[in-house]
Amino acid sequence: MKIFSYAKKLLFLFISIVLINSLIIQAQSESGLGMDLKVGVRAGYAFPVLTIDYQPYTNHLAAPVAGAYVQLNVMSWLGASFDVLYTQYGGNQINPLWIYSPESAALDNLQNSKLVIHSLEFPLAVRLGLPNWTESVSPFISLGGSMAIFMQARIKNYYLDGTYSFQPIYSEATELVTSAINNFDFAFIPAMGVEFNSSPLSFTLELYYRLGLSDVNNYKTFYSPDFGANAFGIKIGIGLGL
């Protein structure tokens, strides 16, 4: 059954790429206009969470987002973008049985666990322009797919060591748990934002939501269910027209 699940996700990503390509080629042939190419950098913050059946099962983290992008506009209202981003996924207050067996000594006096997954992500999106507010201010929406490479996963555990003057005393321990996480993840990412144009530079402000489509869990036990990586976030971009 897992083979069919991954096949459906790969098919979704493939269809997304084909549709984006088709829209751009058709729009370019109909418009007869030259293409507008921009390259730039993006940075921001994401708030990832782990989900079961697409419902949050952990508290959100705060994670950095940083990388570069290429944006191709074939008409004033239609374009596409490709990003290469570093970001993090995971969640706070996760169930430690998602990582450890019930007999593990790591569970003794454990109060809280935070899972952080370091990721390199490759979003590809089609961008649809909305009516401009002014000549230099252009709102837009975008729809796309993404593949992420989960490079490393770490769990930070917080232990109760005792109390002092009725105040709890905690200690921390960080452990590498990359083998418990699958290496690849696919996602659907809708977004909306606004672009400020001041030739040759442009500035974008973008809000997005990442819907993870893959099972992140590689540690298959009765206590550790399939879970996904979702996030919402904000990105600011600076682009240069070529």
Write the layout of secondary structure elements.
Elements: H1 2-31, E1 36-52, E2 55-56, E3 63-75, E4 78-92, E5 110-129, E6 137-164, E7 167-176, E8 184-198, E9 201-212, E10 228-241
Antiparallel strand pairs: 1-2, 1-3, 1-10, 3-4, 4-5, 5-6, 6-7, 6-8, 8-9, 9-10
Task: Provide an overview of this structure.
It is elongated, with a radius of gyration of 21 Å. A hairpin with a 2-residue loop joins β3 (63-75) and β4 (78-92). It has one domain: Porin (Beta Barrel), CATH 2.40.160. The longest helix is centred in the first third of the chain and has 30 residues, at 2-31. The termini are far apart. 12% of the residues lie in helices and 60% in strands. The chain contains 1 helix and 10 strands; from the N terminus they run αββββββββββ. It has one helix at residues 2-31, and strands at residues 36-52, 55-56, 63-75, 78-92, 110-129, 137-164, 167-176, 184-198, 201-212, 228-241. By secondary structure, the protein is mainly beta. Strands 1-3-4-5-6-8-9-10 form an 8-stranded antiparallel barrel.
Mean pLDDT: 86
One letter per element, helices H and strands E, the order comes to: HEEEEEEEEEE
Q: What's the multimeric state? A: single chain
Gap from first CA to last CA: 47 Å
Q: Count the E strands.
A: 10
Strand composition percent: over 45%
Largest beta sheet: strand ordering: 1-3-4-5-6-8-9-10
Number of helices: 1
Largest sheet: 8 strands, antiparallel, barrel
Shape: elongated
The domain count comes to 1
Percent helix among the residues? 10-25%
Structural class: mainly beta
Looking at the overall shape, the CATH architecture is Beta Barrel
The CATH class is Mainly Beta
Radius of gyration: 21 Å
Do you know the CATH topology? Answer: Porin
